Amino acid sequence: MVGTHYQGTQSEKDALELYIKLSRAAGSVEVRINRHLKDHRLTFSQFGVLEALYHLGPLHQHELAAKILKSSGNLTLVIDNLVKRGLVERERDETDRRYITIYLTGAGDQLISDIFPYHVRQVMEAIAVLTPEEQHQLAALCRKLGLAQD
After folding, report:
1. How far apart are CA 130 and CA 121, in angstroms?
2. Residue 98 predicted with pLDDT over 90
3. What is the rounded distance in angstroms from the CA atom of residue 138 to the CA atom of residue 4?
4. Helix (H/G/I), strand (E/B), else coil: 92
5. What is the DSSP letter of 104?
6. Nearest to 90 by CA among 55, 42, 49, 48
7. What is the CATH number of domain 10-116?
8. CB 99 within 8 Å of CB 63
9. Is 86 helix (H, G, I), strand (E, B) or coil?
């Protein structure tokens, strides 16, 4: 594995090494867990939309973007493609046409309820290399790191 070749201070090199390892680990786990999505012709973002709506119910497009960490502009294309497949639908508010709520259709609900249990198993298998204690430690560290960025 190639690390950083940066010739800075030891603290700078350590920070870069950590960042590289964190990015590679996250990318590797993400690829493994989400490999099955292509069998259902779903992108990672499309799956995120379906999963959020499945667990949280109908959401305003801006709320949905925040939940899956996408910009509203990027999410519009994702939703357009899900609408074309009949998996979600949009509903404009009658009093404020800018307010758009996204709903799962019956087909969308069926698809996500069919594939989500497999997805959970993939997650469990991917993190099984860590002990339960290590999983809790990593979760706490990731939360701390993520919250510090806000």
Report:
1. 15
2. no
3. 23
4. strand
5. E
6. 49
7. 1.10.10.10
8. no
9. coil
Q: What are the Cα distances from residue 12, in Å, to 9, 15, 18, 112, 144?
A: 5, 5, 10, 43, 20
Query: Structural domain boundaries of the chain?
Result: 10-116
What tokens were used for 57?
């119910």
The two tokens of residue 95 are: 């009093």
Q: Tell me how far apart the alpha carbons of residues 35 and 49 are, in angstroms, rounded to a whole number.
A: 17
**Contact, 43 vs 78, CB < 8 A?**
yes
What was the pLDDT predicted at 1? 45
The rounded distance, in Å, linking the Cα atoms of 41 and 125 is 22
Question: Position 112: which residue type?
Answer: I
126 pLDDT higher than 90:
yes
Q: What DSSP designation does 38 have?
A: G
What span, in angstroms and rounded, lies between the C-alpha atoms of 82 and 74? 13
Quickly list DSSP for 2-33: ------S-HHHHHHHHHHHHHHHHHHHHHHHH
Decide if pLDDT at 74 tops 90.
no
